[in-house]
Amino acid sequence: MVRQIIFAAAALLYLGSMVPAAEVGDDGLHKEPWFTLTFRDIAEDIEAARQDGKRLALVFEQRGCIYCRQMHEEILADPAVADYIAANFHVVQYNLFGDEEVTDLDGSTLAEKTAARRWRVVFTPTILFMPESAPSEGTAGDAAVATMPGAFGKQTFLHMFQWVREKGYQGEEHFQKYHARKLAEAGGTIETSQ
Question: Which Pfam family is one of those matched by this entry (predicted)?
Answer without folding.
Answer: Thioredoxin_2
